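Sequence only, no structure available. Ideas?
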Amino acid sequence: MSFKILTLNNISVRGLDRLPRDRYEIASEIGHPDAVLVRSADMHQMDIPASVKAVGRAGAGTNNIPVAKLSKRGVPVFNAPGANANAVKELVVAGLFLGARNVCQAWDYVRRLEGGDEELERAVEQGKKKYVGYELPGRTLGVIGLGAIGVEVANAAHLLGMRVLGFDPQITVRRAWQLSSGVEQALSLDDLFSRSDMVTVHVPLTDGTRELVNGARLRLLKEKGVLLNFARAGIVDQTAVLEALNDGRLGAYICDFPTAQIKDHPKVVALPHLGASTGEAEENCAVLVAETLRDFLENGNIRNSVNFPEAVLPRSSAATRIAIANENVPNMVGQISAALAAENLNIADLLNKSRGELAYTLIDVDGAVPPSVTDAVSRINGVLAVRVL
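Reply:
I predicted one. Tokens follow.
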């Protein structure tokens, strides 16, 4: 069995090397692709071929992918959570220093000075008082979102001597194990803001997190506090940020998302979306998503999907595997099993997982699976996609 992969951006060669060329044809223009590999290309207006069985995003965010539309077709969307965590963490740590020490404003001040060395020396001594900052040890950092990036940021800040508050009601057991015991739990977002000198956000942009940082919460932040946003622009209400900066309540806004509204403000340091822009992060993301995509195409296993449940079933060489994406409705497994029994197919192993409105079933059967079985399962109301592997 061979597969065709459509790439919409330049994907790291190290990642593409995880897809053996004797089984995978990879190109930026290719007919009837089995999967799409993408970084930042906008797929919302794209006519996605019916042959596409999966989309892999070589990064964390999937705002550029029509996830809901693909979900209705039974197409999982994969990302690479944690692969760029170190890169983003390093930039956030840099942002802490930029905010605490007024580095960019002071640099800009020096660049604008004119005259000889003696004049510069006088101007420097006179001007430096305007850029007095503070040291990080003893200050409190609030970390909103304790996924792969948030945990690394929290741990790094703790090692810098900061008091760290974390808030994430959906933290996983895996991330909790990785979190330093010195990180304290905030009882709520309001509790976190009210006790923090600096706040950094590390959550995805959803309807529930849009403008999570608003005027009311900024008023809770300690005076001259610093807000950092290396997650997504929409998580922060920019109008509220500007008001807080202008009235002096907020000391600085450090972000990765420049807009016309904020980029020229003297207390804003806006970077051109550099969070994951390292060679190492691009390679790590490409490797992870390529391996995930390969396991899905060849074995039907699902890991790191943003719309389907995790479903991993060990493969037996003696069995034929059927992978089924379906709506999460009652009696689906019963109907599928009945369709197999009608063809005298014995089930050797079965895994069924659900996530919200979607479910996914892996079934290993003894012997070959005739096309009539695929047709019968496809006709079941609620089945979105069926593959025989």
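The first helix runs from residue 13 to 16.
Hope that gets you unstuck.
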